[in-house]
């Protein structure tokens, strides 16, 4: 047995695979650390609630129209003091229309959408500027208002 230990001590081949194993372990470790840091930074994003707009009516016609837009959080609760911005998407709108939500989370705006020649439908875009000091955001797309020709 003592001879086997001496032979093992003289064997220098074992060191050959060690650097490759260390490099592989380092690469895997860095990849895992990157994934974990991404998850941790994602947790901070989860603390911010995404707002959504619920327009009424969702389908309208060209010409002067009143839209009532409710701003809600992910649980469906009304959000007051949010600024709602309505702009033209594929339907034309002369400028942008803005309004601030009341205590019940709704705002009523008057828009005058129009469609181009030979255009049978278009959309109006809705964006929300969350109230100051809250933990709300509006990064995802909101419900669009469909404008259809009469």
Automatic annotation (TrEMBL):
Task: Select a single GO molecular function from the record's annotations and give it.
Answer: carboxypeptidase activity
Mind listing the UniProt keywords for this protein, alphabetically?
Answer: Carboxypeptidase, Hydrolase, Membrane, Protease, Transmembrane, Transmembrane helix
User: In what residue span(s) does the DUF7382 domain sit?
Assistant: 46-110
Membrane-spanning residues: 20-40
Short name of any one Pfam family annotated for the protein: DUF7382
Top-level taxon of origin: Archaea
Q: Which residues form a coiled coil?
A: none
Q: What is this protein called?
A: Carboxypeptidase regulatory-like domain-containing protein
**Organism this protein belongs to:** Halorarum halophilum
Please name the taxonomic classification of the source.
Answer: Archaea, Methanobacteriati, Methanobacteriota, Stenosarchaea group, Halobacteria
């Amino acid at each position: 047995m003592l001879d086997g230990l001496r032979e093992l001590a003289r064997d220098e081949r074992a060191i050959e695979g060690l650097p490759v194993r260390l490099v592989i372990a380092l690469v895997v470790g860095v990849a895992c650390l990157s994934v974990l840091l991404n998850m941790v930074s994602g947790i901070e994003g989860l603390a911010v609630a995404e707002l959504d707009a619920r327009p009424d009516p969702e389908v309208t016609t060209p010409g002067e129209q009143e839209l009532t837009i409710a701003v809600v959080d992910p649980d469906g609760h009304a959000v007051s003091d949010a600024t709602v911005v309505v702009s033209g998407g594929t339907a034309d709108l002369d400028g942008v229309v803005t309004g601030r939500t009341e205590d019940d989370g709704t705002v009523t705006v008057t828009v005058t959408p129009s469609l181009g020649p030979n255009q049978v439908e278009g959309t109006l875009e809705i964006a929300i500027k969350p109230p100051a000091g809250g933990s709300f955001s509006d990064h995802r797309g909101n419900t669009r208002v469909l404008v259809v020709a009469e």
